[in-house]
Design goal:
382 residues, alpha+beta, eight-stranded mixed sheet, five-stranded mixed beta barrel, 19 strands, 29% helix
């Protein structure tokens, strides 16, 4: 039975504790208080192969009578399970990974994860298994990986994410999510592995949901689709995106439409767009910021309206150059490399040839929605 490196017994005011050090301390691992039996079991672990040998040593140490061994075994198993849950001891056998299939953003996605890990975020996008998925995401329990190796090239380093490039994959780290040890994304985006450290507790599922988004947007980009920071609604057979920085009023404006005209909201914060069969298209995805509003499916894209707060309501169509510049400011798909930046621009140019693109100076009242609907009706032809 293998103890995880990075934990040591120390005594504090006469009381033994199992405490993290080195990398385990850097990952914010916790320590636990030990009883005398806990000290014995921890020290005995390196010399046994399994729980039965450990139980035999435990019983011999306490000179247990035969009738006392069942209770002793119960206490031992509870202690061992606690060590495993806190990542202090490797599991006897690797936890099996369950497999689920989804259709997200028009991509067939296979998700492999521990069966005991709660992950409901993709439930509305479930589909029958696809024999050749566009992307496989694996969530793998581990007890430590080598961090960025020599020769890895640094691409991105912020408070929230660190990305390095190796020959065949990208290594991705999320410093604010210590339970996600490391992520490895294959250069073509077909495989994304997220290595996690037990136990499976909050906020790990939420952190994984957001970490998967980064890899998913990378893969979608390789297939000609980009993510746009925007809220969207469905009107006259098409989806219309309202884009802007945080606090501009995207949710306010789409909610005005919903209140005034009963217009369905497609996504409250993020939209995936591309061209399918020559038609600009919006693809439903589960990521929607704090709005909690998203839908699965695909729809024709009617246009993108860039919002700007103002004291009145007026709209003007953008020039071709403005269309590209305004849209690139709202793209959240990867631009880690010059090639990715050019890919985003290329997709933007293709889209803007076929859609309505405008700037809306607007207030936060119903008049803004009424004015914008008139503009869209004029564009579509009443």
């Amino acid at each position: 039975m293998n103890r995880t490196n990075g934990f040591e017994i120390v005594t504090i005011n006469g009381t033994p504790y199992l405490m993290p050090y080195g990398q385990m301390l850097a990952e914010n691992r916790r320590g636990i208080r030990l009883s005398d039996s806990g000290v014995f079991l921890w020290n005995a672990l390196p010399s046994v192969n399994d729980r039965q040998e450990l139980l035999a040593a435990f019983a011999a140490h306490y000179e247990a009578l035969p009738q006392e061994i069942p209770e002793l075994e119960k206490d031992m198993n509870a202690f061992i399970d606690e060590l495993i849950s806190w990542g202090m001891l490797e599991q006897d056998t690797p936890a099996p990974l369950s497999c689920r299939a989804f259709l997200i953003g028009g991509l067939h996605l296979r998700l492999r994860l521990p069966s005991e890990l709660p992950f409901p975020y993709f439930d509305d996008f479930s589909e029958p298994p696809c024999p050749a998925p566009d992307m496989t995401v694996e969530i793998i329990p581990c007890e430590g990986l080598k961090k960025t190796g020599p020769g890895n090239r640094l691409l991105i380093s912020t408070e929230e994410v660190l990305i390095t490039e190796a020959r065949s994959w990208y290594s991705i780290f999320f410093p604010l999510s210590p339970q996600i040890h490391e992520c490895r994304l294959k250069k073509d985006g077909t495989l994304y592995q997220l290595f996690i450290t037990p136990p499976f507790r909050e906020p790990l599922p939420t952190d994984l949901f957001h970490a998967i988004r980064l890899g998913f947007l990378f893969r979608a980009q390789t297939l000609g689709r980009i993510g746009i920071h925007s809220a969207s609604l469905y009107y006259r057979g098409k989806v219309w995106l309202f884009a802007g920085s945080s606090g501009t009023g995207k949710s306010t404006h789409t909610n005005l439409w919903n209140t005034q005209f009963g217009t369905p909201i497609v996504n409250g914060d993020l939209n995936l767009i591309g061209i399918s069969g020559g038609v600009p298209t919006v693809y439903g995805i589960p990521w929607c910021g704090t709005s909690g509003v998203c839908q699965s499916g695909t729809w024709p894209l009617g246009g993108i309206i860039h919002l700007k707060q103002d004291t009145g309501n007026h709209c003007h169509v953008l020039t071709e150059e403005q269309q590209i510049l305004f849209l690139t400011h709202r793209i959240i798909s990867p631009s880690w490399t010059p090639g990715q930046l050019k890919k985003n621009l290329e997709i933007s140019e293709q889209l803007n040839r076929h859609i309505f693109s405008a700037r809306l100076h607007c207030t936060a009242d119903a008049g803004a929605a009424i004015h914008m609907r008139e503009q869209i009706d004029d564009f579509l032809g009443k």
